[in-house]
Amino acid sequence: MATFLYKIGRMSFRRRHFVALIWVALLTLAGAGAAGAPAAGNSSFSIPGTEAQKAFDLLEQRFPGTSADGATARVVFKAPNGEKMTDPGNKATVRETVKELSDGSEVVRVTDPYQAKAVSKDGTVAYAQVSYKVSGMELEDSSRDALEDSARDARKAGLTVEIGGDALQTVPHTGTTEIIGIAVAAVVLVITFGSLVAAGLPLLTALIGVGIGVSTITALASALDLGSTTSTLAMMIGLAVGIDYALFIVSRYRAELAEGRDREEAAGRAVGTAGSAVVFAGLTVVIALVGLSVVNIPMLTKMGVAAAGTVAIAVLIALTMIPALLGYAGRRVKPAGEKGRLLGRAKNKDGQDGQAKPAKPNLGTRWASFVVRRPVAVLLLGVIGLGAAAVPAASLELGLPDDGAQPTSTTQRRAYDLLSEGFGPGFNGPLMVVVDAKHSDDPKAAFTQVGDEIKGLKDVVTVTPPAPNKAGDTATITVIPDSKPSSVATEDLVHSIREKGAGIKADSDANVLVTGQTAMNIDVSEKLNDALIPYLVLVVGLAFLLLIVVFRSILVPLKAALGFLLSVMAALGAVVAVFQWGWLANLMGVEQTGPVMSMMPIFMVGVVFGLAMDYEVFLVTRMREAYVHGEKAGQAIVTGFRHGARVVTAAAVIMMAVFAGFIGSSESMVKMIGFGLAIAVFFDAFIVRMAIVPAVLALLGRKAWWLPKWLDRALPNVDVEGEGLRTDTDRGDQDRELVHVP
C-alpha cells in the first residue's frame, strides 16, 4: 500500500493543476445541486419492528384520511390573572382563533376547547389541537406562519398563548461557538507548524471536503429523506477528521524535507507513510459509522452512512489535494524544525517532530521516557482516573427529548409548562391505545374491556371512551398518564398496558397496541439498548481484524479495544453528570436536565471508537516503524512519541475544539453529542493513548508485537511502515534490517 500511495502523492504533486481542478469542480457541482434542492426538514421517523410503529401502520389502514403520522400543534391559552378561559370575552377570542386555524389548506381538523372539554379544572388554561395532513418535515412555511399569526392575534386580546407539538420544529443552529471551534483549530495549527501557509492547508482541505459532503447531503435530502441533523453530524465529523488527516500528512512532509529530500519525493513519502495510517484510520471510522445500520433505525442509518461518506471524502482529499497544495506552496512550507516568517527563521531548539538530531529532547520524548521508567504507576493512575469519571454512568437513564427539554425561551417549552400547570405533567405525553378487534366475536365488548382494564392501572389519570372506525373493527383509546412523558413511571405504564393486552388477546382475540410519541420514544430506547451488544461485537470485531493487519500483532489491537472501552465509559459518565445530574449545566447551556438521549450510548460507541482508533493508528504505527527497523521495544515507544506526540496532541485539541463548538447548538441532541464527543476525545487521546497505551506497551516489551507464525504468513503485507519505500541509501544510513518478531 505504501508504494501505491507514494505514487499517488508524487502524481498529485506533479499534476497539481489537474487535481485542484477536479476537487474545485466537485465542490461547484455539489454546491449547485444543494442550491437548487428543496430545504431539508426533519426526517420521517419510523422504527421497523416495534409495537408503536405497527400501531401507526394499522391506523393508516383502518382510519384512512386521518393522517395518523401528520404534524400536530397544541395552541395553549392562559387567561389573565383574575380571569378564566370561560369568560365570554376570552371564549370569543379562542373561537375566533380556532376559526382562523381551520382555514389552512393543510389542516385536517381543529378541536374547539369548549366542545372537547379541553379546559383545566380551575378554568385558567385551555388548548386547541390542530392536526395536519402532512408530517412536520413536509409542512409548508405558510402553515407555520398561519399558526404563529393566529397566536399573535390572540395575544393582542390579552391572552397568554404558546404553541407546542411538532408543527413548529425547526432546523437546529449551532451558534457562534462552531466558528470559535474552527478558530481554535487554526491557532493550534499555526503553533504546530509555525507558518500560516502550512497551517492553512489542513483547514482549507477540511472545509472543501465538508463543503462537498454537506452540499451533497443537502442536494439529496429531499430524495433520500435525510433530516436536518444528518448534515450537522456530517459537518461535525468531517471537519474534525478532515483537519486531522491533513495535519498528519503535512507534518510528515515537513519531516521528510528535514531529512534532505526534494519536495516531490517528500510529498510522495509523506502520502506513502502517513497516508497509509490515514487510510486505515479512516476505515475504522467508516466501519463504526456504517455499522450503525445494524440498529435498524432508518434515521440513524442515514446519519451514519452520510457521515461515513464525508469521512471517505476527507481521506481522498488528504491523499490527493494535500500534496497538490504542497506543490503550490513550494518553499513557503518549511522543513520540520525550521520556522517560517511568522515565528522567525531560527532552528527550533526543542526537538520538533522530524528533526534528525534534536539538540534537546522534546516534551513527547521526555514524557515517553518517564512512562517507560514508571509504567505501573502511570497505568494505575490512568485506569483509576477513568474509572472514577465513569462512576456516574451507573446511574444512566435513557429517553428521547420532548418539548420539556427545550430551552425556556421557546414557545414549545412554555406551552409544555402551561399544559403541565393546567392539566398535569402526563398531559404532554398522551398514550394512544389501538384495539384491533377484526377477528373478535364481539368488538364492542373488547373495546369496553380494554378501557376498563386500563382504568384500573396505576399512574392513569384519564381514559377516553373508545373511538371506533367506520367498519367498527378497530378503535382508539387515549390514556393520560399521571407522570411526565420521559419518566420511569410512564414507561412502566406502557409495559403494564401491553401486559394487560396479552390477557385480553387470550380472552377476546383482540390485539391491543400502544403507540403515540411517548410510546414510540420508549420503543426506540429499548431497541437501541438491545442493539448495543451486537453493534459492539460487529464494529470492534471488524476493527480488531483490521488493526491486526496494520500492526501485525494480537495484543496491540486488544489493548486498543480495551482502552476504548475505558474512554467511552468515562465519557458517558461525564454526559450523565452534566445532562442528567446537572453538574456544570449552566456553563454548558443546559436549561433542563433529564434522561440522556437514548441513542447517545450506541452513537458514542460508534463515533468514539472510530476516532480512538485514529490516534492508536497514528501514534503506534510510528512505534512499530521504529521497532521493525531495529530499535528495542522500549526505545521504539520513545521514538514513536518523539515523532508523533506533538502532532497527535495538536490533532486531539483540534478535534475537541470542533466538537465543543457544537455545544452552542439550540438542539439538545446536537449539544449532547458535541459535549460527549469532545470529552471522549480528551479522555482517549490524553489519558488512554498518551498514558495507558505506552505504559502497557512498556510492560509487554517485545511480547506486544507477537504474532503467530501461521497468522503472519496468512495476513497480507500492507506495509504501513513504508518499508517498500526505503532505498539502499536509507538502509545504509540507518544500518538497520527489518526485524521479524518470533
Record the SSE blueprint.
Layout lengths: L1 H13 L1 H20 L15 H12 L9 E7 L9 H15 L4 E4 L14 E8 L8 H16 L3 E6 L11 H17 L2 H29 L3 H31 L4 H28 L7 H32 L33 H11 L1 H16 L7 E2 L11 H13 L7 E6 L6 H13 L4 E4 L3 E2 L5 E8 L6 H21 L2 E5 L1 H35 L3 H26 L4 H4 L7 E2 L2 H29 L4 H28 L7 H33 L8 H6 L13 H7 L8
Parallel strand pairs: 5-11
Antiparallel strand pairs: 1-3, 1-4, 2-3, 6-9, 6-10, 7-9, 8-9
Helix pairs in contact: 1-2, 1-9, 1-10, 2-7, 2-10, 4-5, 6-7, 6-20, 7-8, 7-10, 8-9, 8-10, 8-20, 9-10, 9-16, 9-19, 11-20, 11-21, 12-17, 12-21, 14-15, 16-17, 16-19, 17-19, 17-21, 19-20, 19-21, 20-21
How would you sum up the major sheet?
A: 5 strands, antiparallel
Secondary structure tally, helices: 23
Q: Radius of gyration in whole Å, from Cα?
A: 30 Å
Separation, N- and C-terminal Cα atoms: 24 Å
Structural class: alpha+beta
| Average pLDDT level | 83
Shape: elongated
Low-confidence runs: 345-358, 731-742
What portion of the residues fall into strands of 2 or more residues? 5-15%
Q: How many strand units?
A: 11
Percent range of helical residues? 55-70%
